[in-house]
Specification:
Blueprint lengths: L8 E3 H26 L5 H7 L4 E3 H14 L4 H15 L6 H11 E2 L3 E7 L3 E7 L12 H12 L6 E11 L2 E10 L5
Antiparallel strand pairs: 1-2, 1-3, 4-5, 5-7, 6-7
Helix pairs in contact: 1-2, 1-3, 1-4, 4-6
Length: 186
């Protein structure tokens, strides 16, 4: 059952995690530039006061739109922001599957993430109506970084995640994550 736009919600802790990622990657001025462009300078304090409160998705969407505008064609920055976003949203203690399921509970829209297959060395994910999709340049770098870091946190330091986006049709796509061992054989 899909939600209408009036029912689209996001938990404050998602906004807080994204703002903390901006702070790490872009520093205070970069974060404030995005919030100013989104006309949301007051959101940082509000998201910290009650992190478990749901707010209209429009707040989060305005921040993402400003981010995508100001960081247009900054693919590596967006990817690294996505990795930090994962770190701040789910710092520890969750499996990859739990994190993906919780993400869709924290961002209540008509998007859908489904794990199609999962083995010891690969995961295939199907995403519909991705809310982290960049409309300005038709990319999902922030979401790619989020997925990679979320999976990396569940692996040993000898393992590395490689990814490939397939069947991409705007906000709908599949992501194939492959886990490789980095250990060298001497």
């Amino acid at each position: 059952m899909s939600l209408n736009s009036q029912e689209h919600l996001v938990m404050n802790k998602v906004i807080k995690a994204l703002l903390d990622a901006y702070l790490d990657i872009l520093d205070h001025d970069g974060m404030n530039s995005i919030l100013k462009e989104a006309n949301m300078l007051e959101i940082r304090e509000k998201s910290q006061q009650n992190p478990n409160r749901f707010v209209p998705f429009e707040f989060f969407n305005r921040i993402l739109t400003a981010q995508n505008l100001l960081l247009y064609q900054s693919d590596l920055l967006l990817y690294n922001i996505g990795k930090k976003f994962s770190f701040y949203l789910f710092p520890f203690g969750k499996s990859f599957e739990e994190s993906i399921n919780e993400l869709t509970e924290l961002i209540k829209t008509d998007w859908r993430i489904e794990i199609l297959s999962s083995t010891h060395n690969s995961i295939e994910i199907k995403v519909e109506n991705c809310v982290l999709y960049n409309n300005f340049n038709n990319t999902i770098h922030l979401f790619e970084g989020f997925l990679v870091r979320t999976l990396e946190k569940t692996l040993s330091t000898e393992q590395q995640v490689h990814y490939k986006v397939i069947d991409k049709h705007n906000k709908n796509f599949r992501v194939f994550l492959r886990i490789n061992n980095n250990s060298s054989k001497n």
